[in-house]
Specification:
This protein is of the alpha+beta class. Helices cover 37% and strands 15% of the residues. Helix 5 crosses helix 6, helix 5 runs antiparallel to helix 8 and helix 7 packs antiparallel against helix 8.
């Protein structure tokens, strides 16, 4: 297993659900003489509208930051003025739903900050949305997210509930749980005023944001399930057991290419634990050699400009997923395409770790990396190539 995974195991449950943040800290502390903006020359081919880079700070809420960023870009694509959406409103609603699921499953499911891109759309459909200015989620004395104490308290409470000391569950555990959410994230207002008009979260979603959740689809790629059918997304953070459409590996990049070239951005879930994903340098690719097989000189110069990449196969991708080399670490937002000085194409990816890297919060990710390390993508169905929409019957009207 990889060094990062071993480190997570060693540190135990305190960090088990903060992998997004742990990776950020490891990258930030890594000393390097390389500045990729001096070694790579990127020419933007497509650069779609998106809102400012945010910072999820010490929370594993990348899935909410990335997908709310995606929804903000969807507003812009539809000709609307974008609103910074409340990432922690989406997250809070997920923590409510996840708690119900955890108790019903007697604690036999993953717990923590983590979630998936579809969680934001599901919460939007059920609970609506809010501007970030109305619901910051910072109700416990900090100006940035810091979830360690908060999540530990939620987990401890739920484990007591699941232990069932009374012989049957009380009617008050949910009230107590929601009170902790209120204490840390703030009570959810039934109504709020935004730009001199009164809204509920549902009316704000309907009248201001204006997307239709049923128009969005999620894709993965596994050799273990039939292609072009829905299959359960088998990762721990898929606490709601949602299904994704299973497509061939090359379809993933074909879908993203078609979407971006036609004005649609993409929410992207992926593995970022590889040494060849460098947040500081703002570049991710798949070198021909495994990192463990490189000598010290090769490791030192890994980001000294474009290198030959490994040829990725569906079998290689599946093996990495099955043996835990590929893990569902992080969510980001694909907002464009670029090419380097040798003509290799990359996706322009907006992250939620602030703007303290070589590309001010963005990272250039090669197509080989996306084929190898993607766990799922989510986008508007009209961004999918028509031939694939037909194969999966995505053109039909949905309930």
């Amino acid at each position: 297993m990889k060094k990062l995974t071993l480190l997570l195991v060693a540190l135990g449950p305190v960090l088990a659900f903060g992998q997004d943040n742990l990776i950020l800290k490891l990258e930030a502390n890594k000393k390097t003489d390389t500045n990729s903006d001096k070694k790579y020359i990127f020419s933007k081919m497509v650069n779609l509208e998106n809102t400012s880079v945010k910072n999820q700070a010490s929370s594993g809420t990348c899935w909410s930051y990335s997908t709310n960023s995606f929804l903000e870009s969807e507003m812009m694509r539809m000709g609307k003025t974008p609103v910074q959406l409340a990432q922690l409103y989406s997250a809070r609603r997920v923590y409510e739903e996840k708690a119900t699921n955890y108790v019903r499953m007697h604690g036999a499911v993953a717990w923590g900050d983590g979630g998936e891109c579809h969680d934001v759309l599901n919460m939007y459909a059920k609970y609506g949305a809010m501007p970030q200015s109305v619901y910051t989620g910072l109700h416990y004395g900090t100006d940035k997210n810091k979830f360690s104490e908060f999540q530990a308290m939620l987990k401890a409470m739920l484990d007591v509930v699941v232990a069932n000391h009374n012989g049957k569950l009380t009617t008050s555990w949910r009230t107590a749980y929601d009170a902790v959410l209120d204490a840390y994230l703030g009570p959810v207002p039934e109504t709020f005023t935004w730009e001199h008009k009164k809204y509920t979260p549902q009316s704000f979603a309907r009248e201001v944001v204006g997307i239709h959740p049923e128009d969005y689809v999620e894709f993965g790629s596994m050799t273990t399930s039939p292609y072009y059918k829905q299959t359960t997304f088998m990762v721990p953070d898929n606490w709601s057991y949602e299904k994704v459409y299973n497509v061939k590996m090359n379809d993933l990049t074909d879908i993203i290419d078609n979407a971006v070239n036609n004005g649609y951005t993409v929410a992207w879930a992926t593995d970022v634990s590889e040494k060849y994903f460098s947040w500081k340098n703002g570049v991710a690719f798949v070198p021909e050699k495994d990192y463990e097989d490189m000598d010290d000189t090769e490791k030192k110069h890994m980001f000294d400009g474009p290198m030959d990449e490994r040829h990725i196969t569906p079998e290689m991708r599946q093996k990495a997923f099955d043996n835990y080399e590929t893990t569902d670490d992080h969510g980001m937002h694909i907002v464009g395409m670029a090419k380097d000085q040798i003509g290799r194409q990359y996706y322009i990816v907006k992250n939620s770790w602030g703007d303290k890297n070589d590309y001010k919060g963005y990272i250039y990710v090669s197509k080989a990396y996306v084929k190898y390390k993607t766990t799922a993508i989510l986008l508007h169905k009209n961004g999918v190539p028509n031939e694939l929409r037909k194969k999966m019957d995505l053109n039909r009207e949905r309930d």
